[in-house]
Design goal:
By secondary structure, the protein is α+β, with helices and mostly antiparallel strands. It has helices at about 30-50, 55-65, 65-80, 100-110, 120-125, 140-155, 165-175, 185-200, 205-220, 230-245, 260-290, 290-300, 300-315, 350, 365-370, 395-405, and strands spanning about 1-5, 10-15, 25-30, 85-90, 95, 115, 180, 320-325, 330-335, 335-340, 345, 410-415, 435-440. Helices cover about 50% and strands about 10% of the residues. It has a six-stranded mixed beta sheet, sandwiched between helices.
Length: about 450
């Protein structure tokens, strides 16, 4: 049994169902070390907001370089426990943290059984605003919803059926932004483009829909610790249902995916995911403002270079801070038993900057995404991997890459973030604070 992973189309073996993960077995972490991991790694991540970034906490995390501190702590734990996956007892729950790309990818390849993507925490969070999303769907219904997403997003194809229209929309909304560019100014234009791509031109000015989604995502940060706002969610879903019923040709919600209700059930995630795409675009533009080679590449390197930059920015600053899987059954791993319900946490930022895989893991270098080197690195998971790999990866590359080419036509200089060209980059990057100015001297 094989499965496709990576952009290169290479195929890797999936471990037999009885032994979903092979390699160094987990080691139970001592109580003091477990507290250090929870407080030093997961607490800052949760404070920043895993569904919607909190502005104040994002600014504080950048000042403290919180992700660097978390990585240093994990480096110490890897050394202390010999690189074995860390097994942490949190009350009656068990949390497993793989510390190498091979183990991480084996877990992802063993989705949805025996490691489901519909983890307890993920369902609790996403049920606030997208209860029908494929990521929150366990059991047989998952395959049906996955297939719908793959049809709508044209998974596995570099060019979407509506690629020409999407490029036209992005150019219309992003070309001509003001010379003094902040996140809020950029995001207003980007969200207008997103609504047109996902829902059609009729949604271009529907800022109320985006505002409702933002409120629901704010609640989702708290997962099961905050009651659901049923009236707000019903209003949001009713607006999406109306767009689905009168779906415009050329929109994602208008793709041939079955019933309008089914498409409306997946649309919240498309809107949600495009927020992360906007963050990635703006961070990349900030890099181009201080890296002349990147700026030149965006102007002249074409679609392939722009897509590589999308992947490289996501390598350095993944918008999915942690990839979660829950064990659906008891798993015997050598002499260690993982009870059903064990949560596996793959820490993207730490895996992506593993010094064992790159000579300079903190430097910006899109080349490995173009020459095939990145496809052979099992620790790189910007769009996850395995059967639950993000079905929108190709569409993200298309739309984000074109946005970068449009924005990259003009030279920009940094106002807020002054990175040394070719130098090591911080582990935490607050996109809210990025400010750029068009360089009129060139």
């Amino acid at each position: 049994m094989t499965a496709r992973v990576g952009d290169s189309g290479t195929r890797r073996s999936v471990p037999p169902a009885g032994v979903p993960v092979e390699g160094r077995p987990p080691r139970l972490v001592m109580r003091g070390d477990a507290a250090r991991i929870v407080l030093g790694v997961f607490a800052p991540m949760i404070a920043q907001g895993v569904i919607l970034r909190r502005r104040g906490m994002s600014a504080l995390a950048e000042r403290l370089d919180a992700d660097r501190r978390a990585a240093t702590r994990l480096d110490r734990m890897r050394e202390r426990y010999g690189g074995h996956p860390l097994l942490i007892a949190v009350g009656r729950r068990r949390l497993l943290i793989p510390l190498d790309g091979h183990t991480a990818r084996q877990v992802l390849m063993a989705t949805p059984e025996p490691f489901t993507a519909a983890s307890r925490e993920k369902r609790a969070a996403l049920n606030h605003f997208e209860p029908d999303a494929v990521l929150a769907t366990p059991g047989p219904l998952r395959a049906e919803r996955r297939a719908l997403n793959e049809r709508a997003l044209c998974t596995g194809r570099a060019e979407h059926d509506h690629a020409h229209r999407f490029r036209t929309v992005i150019a219309a909304e992003l070309d001509g932004l003001p010379a003094h560019l902040t996140w809020d100014v950029f995001n207003d234009a980007w969200q207008r483009a997103v609504r047109r791509i996902v829902l059609g031109d009729a949604a271009a000015d529907d800022t109320a829909l985006t505002d409702d989604l933002t409120r629901l995502r704010h609640d989702a940060n708290w997962a099961y610790a905050r009651p659901r706002r049923s009236a707000l969610r019903e209003r949001f879903q009713a607006r999406l249902a109306a767009y689905a019923e009168s779906a415009e040709p050329g929109s994602l919600i208008g793709m041939e995916t079955g019933s309008p209700a089914a498409a409306a059930g997946q649309a919240p995630h498309w809107l949600f995911a495009y927020d992360a795409v906007g963050i990635t675009i703006f961070r990349t533009l900030a890099i181009a403002a201080t890296h002349p080679d990147v700026a030149t590449g965006l102007r002249h390197g074409g679609d392939a270079y722009a897509r590589a930059c999308v992947h490289e920015t996501l390598r350095l600053w993944p918008t999915t801070l942690v990839i979660l899987r829950d064990a659906t059954r008891r798993i015997q791993w050598d002499d260690t038993a993982l009870p059903a319900g064990t949560t596996v946490a793959l820490l993207s930022a730490w895996l992506h900057r593993n010094p064992d895989h790159r000579l300079r893991p903190d430097a910006y270098d899109p080349a490995p995404w173009m020459n095939g080197d990145a496809a052979t690195d099992e620790a790189l998971l910007p769009f996850s991997a395995g059967p639950a790999r993000c079905p929108g990866e190709d569409l993200v590359g298309l739309t984000a890459g074109h946005a970068l080419q449009v924005l990259g036509r003009q030279p920009w200089r940094p106002v807020s973030h002054h990175f040394a060209p070719g130098g090591d980059l911080p582990a935490t990057f607050d996109h809210y604070r990025v400010t750029l100015r068009r360089d009129t001297s060139r």
